[in-house]
Amino acid sequence: xxxxxxxxxxxxxxxxxxxxxxxxxxxxxxxxxxxxxxxxxxxxxxxxxxxxxxxxxxxxxxxxxxxxxxxxxxxxxxxxxxxxxxxxxxxxxxxxxxxxxxxxxxxxxxxxxxxxxxxxxxxxxxxxxxxxxxxxxxxxxxxxxxxxxxxxxxxxxxxxxxxxxxxxxxxxxxxxxxxxxxxxxxxxxxxxxxxxxxxxxxxxxxxxxxxxxxxxxxxxxxxxxxxxxxxxxxxxxxxxx
Length: 241
Fold this sequence. Notes:
By secondary structure, the chain is mostly helical.
């Protein structure tokens, strides 16, 4: 809560009016790639109750402090504090990134502040990254911090520079990997870009290179399901008052 308060204060000092968007239910495809938070909470809750039943104070204290068990409380208290501060919040029916992209498209918000490049696949016109007072970000998996500077990403400008449309960008993302599909092994961003530029669609990439790469992890149904998540996302319709 202190970290959240610190962040809101930083935004206000910079004359930024934030809208905090919370994730809704996770897609089944995303659960295959990332943590199933609800399942993890239920497991932690059971362990916590078992420790209470066994009168094991040490284990009870240990499980009570685990993030998986605290997760619903963290969300509930965060929303309550933001409400007390008068900061608007939205709970997305699905991904927060898709909801933020929708707010920017509807010009309710100017930017989506996210480090997740899936924001671009959701069609967010303007994404803002590295917005922090410390101007530092921890390197994943290491106790090292690197200096960062705020940057904006304009989707239309980048699509024109790359010579792609949003449909091709989504197919490129599927080749590389997203939260909803791990990608095709041995295909990185440059290779994926070149393949999409040449063949235009995932299906044509598959037809031309099915003997060069392992496409066994994806079917037509899964391909179309991932496309639908990005191109026709489930969002809450919000009207500016």
